[in-house]
Amino acid sequence: MKENNVPSAVIKNLTKSYGGFTALRDVNLVLPKGKIIGLLGPNGSGKTTLIKILTGLITNYQGEVLVEGRPVGADTKALISYLPDRNYFADWMRARDAIFLFSDMYADFNGAKAFQMIDRLGLNANQKIKSMSKGMIDKFQLCLVMSREAHLYVLDEPLGGVDPAARDFILDTVLKNYSEDSSVIISTHLISDVERIFDTVIFLKQGEIMLCDEIDTLREKTQKSVDQLFREVFKC
User: Fold this and answer.
1) 213 lies in which domain range?
2) Per UniProt, which keywords does this protein have (predicted)?
3) What is the pLDDT of residues 216-233, one digit of tens each?
């Protein structure tokens, strides 16, 4: 059973530099369970670096990062369902091959749910993934990620190549497939399309936290949508 009193993730004094460039500077965050969190910022703000540290893809940094109270490592990778912003499938794979692979790799993966979701999105389980459009691959990858019963879902630009008609279905899929014992982090530039499902938003700028607040509190204080506030904070 999951420990409900432990946050999905805790980040303390996190700093990451590449040579002379500081991608993240003294970042402190607590990501509670049961929340959908928008990780927002312009290109180069540190979003991808933060995601890669949380998911264990970057291990050389200063500070402390805990997932479910555990230091990031092999144990925490099994708790996180990660949607990267690029295709990672072998050319020979059909959609069903990837589903069977995920079933073998992850004890918390529900293959029947994945097949149901791709059917709802009009995808063909027998189609080779390399022959799919970018939008089709994005939909398929999201189906795989949301078919796990993970503690933390990390979605990097989940709607980037998806047509507007499918966006509502995908957002509803996210809403229906996480639980009060898990959290979802969504990094996106399509704020106006996604903000309706956010509980909390984080603004990152040049590696520093500019804002972290509950979305209802923000709207009450500023009388603005998240998209409007983002444009104001990050105005060129």
Assistant:
1) 9-233
2) ATP-binding, Nucleotide-binding, Transport
3) 999 899 999 999 999 988
